[in-house]
Write a structure and sequence with these properties.
The complex is a heterodimer of chains A (about 190) and B (about 650). Chain A has about 190 residues and is of the alpha+beta class. Chain A is built from seven helices and six strands; from the N terminus they run ββααααβααβββα. A four-stranded mixed sheet of chain A has the order 4-3-5-6, covered by helices on one side. A two-stranded antiparallel sheet of chain A has the order 1-2. In chain A, strand 1 and strand 2 form a beta hairpin. In chain A, helix 2 packs antiparallel against helix 3 and helix 3 packs across helix 4. The longest helix of chain A is centred in the C-terminal third of the chain and has 28 residues. Chain A is flat, with a radius of gyration of 20 Å. In chain B, the strands form five sheets. Chain B has a five-stranded mixed sheet with strand order 2-1-3-4-5, with helices on one face. Chain B has about 650 residues and is α/β, with parallel strands linked by helices. Chain B is globular. Chain B starts with 8 loop residues before the first helix and ends in a 15-residue tail after the last strand. Chain B has 25 helices and 18 strands. The chains are: A alpha+beta (about 190), B alpha/beta (about 650). At the A-B interface, helix 2, helix 4, helix 5, helix 6 and helix 7 of A face helix 2, strand 10, strand 14 and helix 18 of B.
Chain lengths: ~190, ~650
């Protein structure tokens, strides 16, 4: 059992270490905010910025801080596209589905990422390496179709480029693994 | 206090302006080259950062002194990354599609040997004898820049750049003028809200100014949600101070002491730049308490939206700032009567606020002289899609679509045929060729079935399926419907279901009538602009492209060959070359196999119709064909293993 501002937060056995960190972080972060209803969105944005998603526990804590019900917080959070409720992957892939990108076949690009990683848009791979999201227009329409991988914008995407990008990450990962192995064996 | 001995706001402002002029003079009059690099989102996406790094490295390597100045967006997205070089002895030269390699060569050739590398030049920004000026291109000549006059030419992160161009002088002068005089000037200009609906700006301001409630708010709507329009982003990233000055003048006129800029979450760079701009204005005493020695206080904050299209609607936007779900309210009461926290509120678009300072710089009559009688001023369009010179274009209202698309933006690439232009995003409509002579202004566009809306303009060639475009927009609005009105929530879902069925080849007789009926019902039964305009793409595409609907429904054929379930790729065995493997490697699903006579064929059950094989097939063979309906593709069996 965990107490936050006199509110009982049920400690679930499945809460892992990262959730404990959330608990600590958000607790101290909330102190910096007012308790006005207008603070709700900035608080949620700040949490998302730091943790990249809104954990159920985080929503409970925000509700406690503003003295409103958790479902009220959940209702607002789910209304807006920006908030996510699952942890994103290490490499975040965002495929632009704006009008110009659509005309140039962005659905094919999205489909290629989905097929290659075996997840759907909005999901994260089992190993938490990759996640795919759809975004509506990033404002680079002249470069359509566009995909954003880890904050790098890739213009004029093609299915073959999708394979190349993912292959690049896999090679990098393999290289790191071997380096680590070499480091261990030399010790 | 004795009024006569007190300095006016403008007199207090003058030293700031002199300082700005001194600083800019230092940049302009030195003997080193100046390199201006376009570093707004679109420039960065095209690799401006790498170009900047290459310039820096090469300059250091060769020991050349030059100043690199990051600027915003010129609006010429097709030519990004754009770099302007001021080298003493030469006119300022624009270089387009820069790469790190070109940057390196330019430093060596231009700064060391005086060769401006003509092959990379787009044009000079001033008339001269040496290099053709950009003004000679119709893309530059036809534009009339009021809002974007300084975009891409000044450093958005340095307030002195804007002040040296005359920035904040109008605000400083306005502070000693009576509010009614300012309002009169805006009324005289005939400025209409640039957010899409075109409401008279002066009327809105007057209502708030005359409200009984002493506490008022000003909100700048930068929640640019239309997927395909990005001029608000470009303005905020390239010249945020012009917008802030407009907000400040508005706040003074209506008597508001707090203003909020509501920026979309998808624009992190714009948020950063606007925040810095506000902080700089505060430091110089242009914002904050007792501005420029007067008793007028103004605080401007930035509020980040969280990605909801409906929040572009003013009442929903207010809900969102108040920490609620962004759901629209019935009007009246209008926000100018009861807005944010129940107080009278002015909500205007970025472009509206951006027009204020230029209007006061000259006068209302000057602004009224531009554009048409009913829609004065300029309009900014983001022209994208199948177009040669894609990007942001600021043109006087009233020029025709044909001039904009074919003269200013260079027409359709690859010798394709023009099919339609989609104006106004998800709320707008598609206009076919016969409407190309429609003048661009609020009323004539609405009459044709489209609308000015956000200013998004997507040009479509013969390869675009109008039904798929309608489906795309309905899919968007259906997702973004806030769910308050039943017709918008459920009606758009059914609209989408029917359109999806048609694009999959499962259309039924009577579907077109059903779509029309349902569309009209949704328009009737919805409260806000989102629902009222959501069926526009469907209605206009039925009105102007009914034959395409009929081809989809009756013949199961997509005339533009865009709907994937209705098309198929196959390899023409007469053209395919033995032993060539180009297509096999390109296929993401390994659906291409070798036939018994060592040519290639596509396994239709595995093909996802991405078109990669068509791109990969060497042009001398050109063997990949696309057909609709898919039954036209010959079936070839995969030979048995072994």
């Amino acid at each position: 059992m965990f107490f936050y501002k006199g509110m009982e937060v049920h400690y679930r056995p499945e809460i892992e270490k990262e959730d404990e960190a959330i608990l600590r972080d958000i607790g101290s972060m909330l102190e910096g905010f007012g308790r006005h209803r207008g603070d709700l969105m900035p608080i949620l944005q700040k949490i998302q910025e730091g943790h990249h998603y809104l954990a159920p526990l985080a929503l409970e804590m925000v509700a406690g801080h503003l003295n409103i019900s958790t479902c009220e917080v959940y209702g607002v959070a789910t209304f807006y596209n920006q908030f996510r409720f699952h942890p994103p992957g290490k490499h975040q892939i965002k495929v632009c589905l704006g009008t110009a990108c659509h005309v140039k076949g962005s659905d094919i690009i999205l489909e290629n990422f989905e097929r290659k990683l075996e997840i759907k848009a909005g999901e994260t791979t089992q190993d938490r390496e990759f996640s795919i999201d759809k975004v509506a227009c990033v404002g680079c329409c002249a470069l359509a179709p566009v995909a954003i991988v880890d904050d790098t914008v890739h213009g004029h995407m093609a299915p073959s480029k999708v394979e190349g990008l993912i292959l690049g990450f896999e090679i990098e990962k393999e290289r790191q693994r071997r380096e680590k192995q070499r480091g261990e064996s030399s010790q | 206090m004795n009024q006569a001995s007190k300095k006016s706001a403008y007199e207090i402002f003058l030293p700031i302006r002199e300082e700005a002029e001194r600083r800019i003079g230092e940049i302009k009059n030195n003997t080193h080259p100046n390199i201006y690099i376009g570093m707004a989102t679109c420039g960065l996406a095209s690799g401006a950062m790498e170009v900047k790094a290459a310039f820096e490295a090469t300059l250091r390597e060769r020991g050349i002194e030059a100043r690199i100045i990051p600027v915003g967006c010129l609006g010429h997205c097709y030519a990004e990354p754009l770099v302007m070089v001021e080298n003493p002895g030469f006119p300022p030269i624009l270089y387009h599609e820069m790469t790190p390699g070109k940057a390196k060569m330019l430093v060596k050739a231009f700064f060391e040997e005086g060769d401006p590398l003509f092959e990379y030049i787009l044009g000079a920004t001033e008339e001269n004898d040496l290099i053709p000026a950009v003004k000679e291109f119709s893309r530059f000549r036809s534009e009339e820049r009021i809002l974007m006059a300084h975009c891409g030419l000044i450093d958005p992160e340095d307030i002195y750049h804007y002040i040296a161009k005359g920035g904040y002088s109008r605000f400083a002068k306005a502070l000693s003028l009576p509010q009614d005089k300012l309002l009169g000037e805006i009324r005289e200009s005939g400025l209409r809200g640039r957010g899409g609906a075109g409401f008279q700006t002066a009327l809105k301001w007057e209502m708030v100014k005359n409200a009984e409630e002493p506490e008022r708010f000003v909100i700048c709507n930068a929640d640019e949600g239309d997927p395909g329009a990005y001029m608000d982003r470009a303005i905020l990233e390239s010249n945020p101070h012009q917008v802030i000055e407009g907000i400040a003048i508005c706040s003074y006129t209506v008597g508001a002491q707090r203003a909020i800029i509501y920026v979309r979450a998808e624009y992190p760079l714009a948020v950063k730049i606007v925040k810095r701009a506000i902080a700089q204005a505060r430091e110089l005493g242009i914002l904050g308490k007792e501005i420029l020695g007067t008793n007028f206080d103004l605080e401007i904050e930035v509020f980040q939206g969280s990605g909801a299209f409906v929040c572009g609607e003013e009442t929903a936007l207010i809900q969102s700032i108040q920490g609620e779900r962004g759901m629209p309210h019935p009007r009246p009461p209008y926000p100018s009567q009861r807005g944010l926290w129940g107080k009278p509120t002015v909500i205007n678009n970025v472009k509206t606020f951006g027009s204020i300072a230029p209007i006061l710089e000259r006068n209302g009559a000057w602004f009224r002289g531009i554009g048409t009688d009913k829609s004065p001023g300029t309009a900014i369009f983001s022209v994208v899609g199948s177009i040669v010179h894609a990007g942001l274009v600021e043109i006087p209202m009233g020029i025709t679509l044909r001039r904009l698309i074919f003269d200013v933006c260079g027409g359709i690439p690859k010798k394709k045929k023009f099919k339609a232009v989609q104006i106004g995003g998800p709320s707008g409509g598609c206009l076919p060729e016969e409407f190309l002579d429609t003048p661009i202004e609020f009323d004539s566009l609405t009459q044709a079935g489209a609308m000015m809306g956000s200013g998004g303009m997507v040009v479509m060639d013969e390869d675009t399926c109008m039904i798929d475009i309608a489906r795309y927009f309905v899919d968007f609005t259906q997702n973004e419907s806030c769910g308050k009105c039943t017709f918008c929530r459920i009606g758009t879902k059914h609209l989408l279901n029917i359109l999806e069925r048609i694009t999959k080849g499962e259309g039924r007789k009577g579907d077109i009538d059903l779509l029309e009926d349902l569309s009209l019902d949704i328009k009737e039964g919805s409260l806000c602009g989102l629902g009222k305009t959501a069926p526009n793409p469907v209605l206009t595409s039925i009105r102007y492209f009914r034959d395409e609907y009929e081809a989809h429904i009756n013949e199961k054929r997509c005339p533009a060959m865009m709907c994937r379930p209705l098309t198929a790729y196959f390899i023409d065995l007469d053209r395919c070359a033995r032993g060539c493997d180009a297509c096999v490697g390109s296929c993401p699903t390994e659906s291409i196999f070798t036939t018994s006579n060592r040519k290639k064929a596509i396994d239709q059950t595995l093909c996802v119709k991405c078109g990669e094989c068509m791109t990969a097939c060497p042009p001398e063979y050109d063997a990949v064909r696309k057909v609709s309906p898919p039954e036209l593709a010959p079936r070839i069996e995969r030979p048995k293993e072994g």
